[in-house]
């Protein structure tokens, strides 16, 4: 008899990724489809239901051998009740997605925040495999995070645990979309880094960034790291500030959670050693020595598959 398999769904603003995953976290079959958010929740959910059944057929998995389906979503969720409270990118509000999917699939369904789901994937089969205490951080447009402690995903009272990007680093800093000022996200995200660089350019700072990106409208963190490699002072200052804030946030997390590993993913992490080497040095300087002892800071491994694997893991690795 075939062992149970699971379906993981990673729903984003532009694409819907899903895969059939076995009990070891291996993706047996996967697909990616456009989200088509303009269809509203009814249209997106209808196609999600259909795509999951198609995927099971493609993988050769009978529907009665699917043990359940996990769904990662990019927004504010009422996780215990399976309700989407608000998805900014899709304009959804108060959508009882879990109950609708369970009724259609006749299978257990669990939903969670996409950052938590990616963390679960990395902890299960990626850079966090083999240890029970991991903090995963995504440095992209914003700063997302997920916490695995004692092998379990930590969600908190209302599912807000792991919102690492909203640790306040500078009370007199930039306004954050969350309403606070000086959140980590305003400094160490790709958006924050580009904004700081643009401010410098607009103030008349001399920088090769002006030559690299005419008009500066398409400035990226890749440009910043490339300019810093050419000894550009402005680019290096921006990177140093972002790394310092991130290191201090990791120091706070270390004395609270004492993880074995920090896993860093997202677009900014593609800078590789130019990010990780100074981050490790800065972390070592600002973190209480006992809390820092033996801690590893590693790049994420799974890329876009982390969401699929982690979503399936919501069911496959559930203690229930």
Automatic annotation (TrEMBL):
Biological process GO annotation list?
Answer: glycolytic process
Quote one Gene Ontology molecular function term: glucokinase activity
Q: Name one GO cellular component term.
A: cytoplasm
Keyword Kinase (UniProt): yes
Q: Which UniProt keywords apply?
A: ATP-binding, Kinase, Nucleotide-binding, Transferase
Is Nucleotide-binding there in the keyword field? yes
Matching entries from Pfam families are given as: ROK (PF00480)
For this protein, the record's InterPro entries field holds: ATPase_NBD (IPR043129), ROK (IPR000600), ROK_cs (IPR049874), ROK_glcA (IPR004654)
EC number(s) reported in the record: 2.7.1.2
Family membership noted in the UniProt record: Belongs to the ROK (NagC/XylR) family.
How is this protein named in the record? Glucokinase
């Amino acid at each position: 008899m075939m062992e149970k398999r699971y379906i993981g769904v990673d729903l984003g603003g532009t694409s819907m990724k899903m895969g059939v995953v076995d009990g070891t976290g291996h993706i047996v079959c996967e697909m990616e489809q456009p989200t088509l958010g303009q269809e509203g929740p009814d249209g997106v959910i209808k196609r999600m239901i259909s795509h999951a059944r198609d995927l099971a057929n493609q993988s050769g998995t009978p529907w009665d051998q699917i043990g359940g389906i996990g769904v990662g979503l990019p927004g504010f969720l009422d996780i215990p009740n399976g309700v989407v409270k608000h998805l900014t990118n899709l304009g959804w509000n108060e959508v009882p997605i879990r109950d609708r999917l369970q009724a259609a699939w006749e299978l257990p369904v669990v939903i969670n925040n996409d950052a938590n789901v990616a963390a679960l994937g990395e902890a299960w089969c990626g850079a966090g495999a083999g240890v029970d205490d991991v903090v995963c951080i995504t440095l992209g447009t914003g700063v997302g995070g997920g916490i695995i402690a004692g092998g379990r995903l930590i969600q908190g009272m209302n599912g807000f645990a792991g919102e690492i990007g909203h640790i306040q680093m500078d009370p007199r800093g930039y306004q954050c979309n969350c309403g606070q000022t000086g959140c980590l996200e305003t400094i160490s995200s790709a958006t924050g880094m580009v904004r700081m660089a643009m401010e410098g350019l607009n103030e008349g700072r001399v920088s090769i960034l002006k030559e690299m990106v005419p008009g500066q409208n398409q400035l990226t963190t890749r440009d910043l790291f490339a300019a810093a490699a050419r000894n550009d002072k402005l680019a290096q200052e921006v990177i140093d500030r972002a790394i310092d804030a991130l290191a201090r946030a990791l120091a706070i997390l270390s004395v609270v959670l004492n993880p074995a590993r920090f896993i860093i993913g997202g677009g900014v992490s593609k800078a590789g050693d130019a990010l990780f080497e100074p981050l490790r040095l800065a972390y070592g300087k600002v973190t209480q020595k006992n809390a820092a002892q033996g801690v590893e800071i590693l790049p994420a491994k799974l890329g876009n598959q982390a969401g699929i694997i982690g979503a399936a893991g919501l069911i496959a690795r559930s203690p229930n």
